[in-house]
Automatic annotation (TrEMBL), chains A, B:
Domain STAS span(s) in chain numbering: 3-114
Pfam families: STAS
InterPro entries listed in its UniProt record: Bact_StressResp_Reg (IPR051932), STAS_dom (IPR002645), STAS_dom_sf (IPR036513)
Organism of origin: Thioclava sediminum
Protein name: UDP-glucose 6-dehydrogenase
CDD domains the record matches: STAS_RsbR_RsbS_like
Amino acid sequence: MSGVTSINLVENALLVSIQDDVTDTEIVELQDTLSNRIAKENVKGVILDISSLEIVDTFVGRVIAQLAGISKLLAAETYVVGMRPAVAVTLVELGMYLPETRTALSLTHALTQLRRA
Amino acid sequence: MSGVTSINLVENALLVSIQDDVTDTEIVELQDTLSNRIAKENVKGVILDISSLEIVDTFVGRVIAQLAGISKLLAAETYVVGMRPAVAVTLVELGMYLPETRTALSLTHALTQLRRA
């Protein structure tokens, strides 16, 4: 299983790297682990790194939206970083505007914004 | 083909002029080009100049909404400038309130707001 998603604490945020070949089962696990860690570690934000995603479909779009929704309910702001241009175009064409998330071009930008928050 | 849309870098924003007779194919190309340039040139904003649009329909409204959605996902703020009063009336009548966009009466106003951001 190459595509294990990882969760790491960076400053006051949890950095989640989503792999290209993430499966349905892994996502359910990720949701559990992430929500528990947000509550336990009292983080201000969740940063979803999707730079390894080359193609998105509605499944991946829904995954991002759900993770953002969970984080918001647990009082953490979600930033999506590393989105490829083609991915942005596809998400919008699929009608997925990800209203709950903020985007930042890089991890540095996301951390800067979280420091200000 | 008279109505070629242009993209120019102005300060820290990309100025996109949308022509009246823009076609579906041109829009797809514009989405690709614009998204790649936002990511590459690390701009803070996208300014959609629609002053040459005399009439809008749902197609053009959707184009504006999609371009704004893509820009937002790539961490750039969208400003719509040069909207004619009749166009504003039509967009609202069509139920298109363009929630992802900010509007400014002129390019100068948009640039002033982007400098502050």
